[in-house]
Amino acid sequence: MKLQNPIVLDIGAPFFPTPSRIFRNCGYAEKKLLPIDYLLYYYHLSQGPIYYHDEIMAAYVMGENSTFASLPSIPNLNSMFSYRVSLLFDFNHDQFCTKLQEEYDTRNGIGKLRYYFLKFLKKIFGIKLGWKIWFFIIFVPRYGIKCMDIHYLYSHKKAKDNADQRVNKSN
């Protein structure tokens, strides 16, 4: 079967749920890339078009009461993704990553202030240093220096505590 539905690295590229993706192993360990869904997805898109089989292959349950979605810091954690994608690409796809930041902040109700601040810092300090300063100012005070690591997602303890609190409230 030949798939003929190309998707390229573009801000409008759909993000397919994790269980519906199949990728050839390309030496992630050597690239120091953990198998984090969005990093793998954008990495593969950066290598050329990906193709999809236009059939339902998995069901993905989403809701506001899931453990991850109910974390109060999810909008902030989602806003960290564009920086991590920038790190993944060694800041070589800046236009894409900057637009991705604007999309995340708009979609998560944060507004465009962070986006404009990022653009301002990049104009003054350059792309790489501008991104790093922006991320440091916005996220490190709240999440600690560990959040600057490309593999940081969220505190598993905080997620568990949050889920436990929700269960206790419903009882």
Give the strand order, joined by hyphens, for the main sheet. 1-2
**Secondary-structure element series:** EHEHHHHHH
Strand-pairing-aware structural class: mainly alpha
> How far is it from the N-terminal to the C-terminal residue, by CA?
52 Å
Total count of strands: 2
Mean pLDDT: 74
The rough form would be described as: globular
Oligomer: single chain
What are the low-pLDDT stretches, counting only 5+ consecutive residues below 50? none
Put simply, the count of helices is 7
* Proportion of helical residues: 40-55%
Q: Strand content of the residues, in percent?
A: under 5%
What does the radius of gyration come to? 17 Å
Largest sheet: 2 strands, antiparallel
How many distinct domains?
Answer: 2
Describe this structure in words.
This protein has seven helices and two strands. It is mostly helical and 171 residues long. It has two domains: 6-51, no CATH class; 74-156, no CATH class. Helix 1 (37-46) crosses helix 3. The termini are far apart.
